[in-house]
Write a structure and sequence with these properties.
The protein is of the alpha+beta class. About 50% of the residues lie in helices and about 15% in strands. Bound molecules: adenosine-5'-triphosphate (ATP) and magnesium ion.
């Protein structure tokens, strides 16, 4: 979505909240990305209004609210995640706060956040409000923790992967202390659910700078903690599924059945993405992904695919029924291999895909089969 349109809509949104007597600021990813000239998908807002106030304010547009004092509102097709200023008192399972209190102070709210570049705010007039040095780190391209990183990562271990994600997608460096603490605390990752790990890894691997993320995961020694044993064999690939295929963690992380099939196909095709047989049997996509991994020009794969004499079984110029009629025999176990042989002959251009020719060839092969049987 166009950045200016989002900004205008977001400013309108916080004005609406402020007009009802509350404080409200745009915060987090949208402001960070706006300053970097990167489009965002959604907008986070921090406000002194409580979820109850907000539900009252946005009765129709309110989508949901969670137990942590956050509501989602859709306004002009944009997702707004509106969160009440809060202090987090205690955490459970190294993941989420289990006790929060609402407060009336922006700065206090910003202090419970993860990284300084995620604390930059914008007020209803579009002014930048930078209370914790976020702009300086944005300029220096540094991911630095807002508070003591030792405590920050212990409270919520997801922050380790968020740090790697932001360093990857924004092409920033991790602050040295944060880096050291990540190394010291990486064992806590075992407490994080596979779903949450995969969500963050998906964001890292689908970034145009995925290889930077992969290098960082290796440097920080997170590969073992994340069961990414094959990370050293990963080659650049713009398709996230291609990266997962190289990592061979199909049975560790949650994937759909289709994704598992696709990853298996990509691996099967890797030996020879341009072969007739692979292009025909697996289709274009796994071959394109495998070609990219092998650094073969995608255009060549597309051309080879388009040049296939047939693209699917039903493109073959005869049906099994026509073949049986022509041979004047009933179906039997011979039919499938015979038909497949004709398909292979057409695919490899040994026989043209024409009905007469295929029927004749079918007859010849069938005759040979019968002769072999009688021997
Ligand atoms: P993006 O939306 O691009 O993924 P974001 O920084 O906006 O990045 P969100 O998950 O939308 O991330 O969270 C919004 C803001 O809430 C963050 O910018 C950060 O200030 C704060 N935040 C989110 N998750 C955490 C966390 N696990 N610990 C501390 N603060 C967090
Ligand atoms: Mg966000």
């Amino acid at each position: 979505m166009v950045i200016d349109y989002m900004l205008k809509t977001a400013l309108k949104m916080i004005k609406t909240i402020e007009d009802h007597g509350f404080q409200a600021y745009i915060v987090g990813g949208f402001v960070r990305d706006y300053l970097l000239g990167i489009p965002s998908n959604d907008v986070d807002i921090a406000t002194s209004a409580t979820p109850k106030d907000l539900k009252h304010l946005f009765q129709d547009a309110c989508l949901s609210n969670d137990d942590y004092g956050s509501i989602t509102v859709i306004f002009k097709n944009i997702h707004f995640e509106i969160t009440t200023f809060r202090k987090e008192l205690s955490y459970k399972d190294n993941r989420r706060p289990d006790q929060i209190i609402y407060i009336d102070n922006l700065k206090e709210d910003l202090k419970r956040r993860d990284f300084t570049v995620n604390t930059i705010c914008m007020d209803q007039k579009g002014n930048i409000v930078d209370l914790l040095g976020g702009c300086e780190d944005l300029q220096k391209k540094i991911i630095r923790s807002v508070s003591d990183p030792f405590v920050l990562l212990e409270e919520d271990v997801l922050r380790i992967l968020r740090a790697v994600r932001f360093a990857t997608t924004l092409q920033f460096e991790l602050d040295d202390t944060l880096k050291e603490v990540i190394k010291a605390k990486k064992y806590l990752l075992s407490r994080l659910s596979l779903n949450r790990k995969k969500e963050e890894l998906d964001k890292i691997f689908s970034s145009p700078f995925a290889m930077r993320g992969i290098a960082l995961l290796k440097e920080l020694g997170l590969d073992k903690e994340l069961s990414l044993i094959k990370i050293y064999q990963v080659k650049p690939c713009s398709q996230v599924i291609g990266i997962w295929a190289m990592l061979e963690v199909d049975d560790i992380y949650p994937f759909t059945r289709n994704e598992k099939t696709l990853m298996e196909e990509i691996r099967q095709v890797l030996d020879s993405p341009l072969s007739f047989s692979n292009l025909y049997h697996y289709g274009l996509y796994p071959c394109v992904v495998a070609a990219e991994i092998k650094d073969i020009d995608k255009k060549k794969v597309n051309e080879a695919y388009l040049a296939l004499p047939i693209h699917r079984r039903k493109d073959l110029a005869i049906t099994t029924k026509e073949l049986l009629n022509y041979l004047e025999v009933k179906a039997g176990p011979f039919l499938k291999p015979l038909y497949q042989e004709l398909e292979e002959l057409v695919l490899t251009r040994q026989v043209k895909n024409e009905k007469e020719l295929l029927l004749e060839k079918g007859k010849e092969l069938f005759g040979k089969l019968e002769r072999d049987d009688n021997k």
